[in-house]
Write a structure and sequence with these properties.
alpha/beta; seven-stranded mixed sheet
């Protein structure tokens, strides 16, 4: 709870980060009652949104949670900002070393065990370098060390829960059953905890659920395209629109293509950049409104006009 705005984090993985934010805020001198972490049920959240003391609500979570929060906020004429899921495209037009590019792409996809709304999830690669990119990506993902997140040698830790892990594995298995090719990983790892082997999929087609659904875990899906128009058509052919990136040695060409992405955040030769001064948010099923910077402050600032007419003579 920040002032008179509720900030909702609808995911177990956010609990520790929220606790850390509270400690940092209070340590910096923010009054203890100005920022409060509240662990509440759905029903309790609905009651808080309805309370007259609350004037706005900002949610980071799933589409289902976003629809419920937006409906409740609208019923009480409260402003809402929704930062929901994403299925971000990573478009690679050319590369002097596709395998090296793939290794960097693997790192971006596997960060936080693939559990980031704005991580690159769909790799759309020009057909001339597609085979080299896939080979490099499979090699990089195969070499990843999965294990205890407190071990410095670990590169990928567990998912947020066993249920979340099993859902990702189910998505991979469904894609394979429908005809996709699984190059590596995709299975649960032995032992306690929500661990799975990171995976690479190719051959995903529009008829498959994996084509349109967000895979919120360590799974990379790679596509081959013949030209720029095919790349942008594929990139935009999903319900999500959080962010996306275009990579090329020709910055002008990449920028022109990035401007055609139907997303809230388009980047050239980088992906997932989030800074305090940059607006963060998406379009379509990825939500509405913006967080961070003056744009985030403006979402919950009430503008009041004062106009003074000339005094009567």
């Amino acid at each position: 709870l920040l002032g008179n705005t509720i900030i909702l984090k609808h995911a177990p993985i956010c609990a520790q980060s929220s606790q850390l934010m509270e400690e940092i805020a209070h340590g910096a001198g923010v009054p203890s009652d100005a920022y409060i972490n509240i662990y509440a049920s759905n029903e309790q959240i609905a009651d808080m949104i309805a309370d007259d003391r609350v004037q706005g609500v900002s949610l980071t979570g799933s589409g289902r949670a976003g629809a419920a929060v937006a409906q409740t906020a609208a019923a009480h004429l409260k402003k809402s900002v929704l930062e929901l899921g994403g299925s971000d495209p990573f478009i690679l037009l050319d590369s002097p070393d596709p395998a090296a590019h793939a290794a960097g792409a693997a790192g971006g996809r596997m960060m936080n065990c693939g559990q980031a709304c704005n991580s690159p999830k769909r790799f759309i690669v020009h057909e001339d370098i597609y085979d080299d990119f896939v080979s490099g990506l499979v090699a990089a993902v195969s070499a990843i060390t999965v294990g205890d997140p407190t071990d410095p040698a670990t590169e990928v830790g567990p998912l947020s829960s066993v249920a979340a892990r099993d859902r990702v594995i189910e998505q991979v298995q469904e894609a394979v059953a429908q005809g996709a090719t699984l190059h590596v990983g995709g299975q649960p790892l032995d032992g306690p905890g929500a661990f799975m082997a990171p995976a690479v999929l190719t051959g995903v087609t529009p008829e498959m659920a994996a084509y349109r659904d967000e895979i919120f875990g360590p799974v990379a899906v790679v596509y081959s395209v013949p030209d720029d128009d095919a790349a942008i058509e594929l990139a935009n052919d999903v319900d999500y629109g959080l962010s996306g990136s275009v990579w090329s040695s020709d910055v002008e060409r990449a920028t022109a293509l990035a401007d055609r992405l139907d997303v809230g955040m388009a980047m050239v030769n980088e992906h997932g950049t989030s800074l305090p001064g940059l607006p963060f948010g998406g379009v379509k099923a990825s939500g509405y409104g913006r967080e961070l910077g003056r744009w985030g402050l403006g979402e919950f600032a009430n503008l009041r006009l004062r106009r003074i007419a000339k005094a009567p003579s």
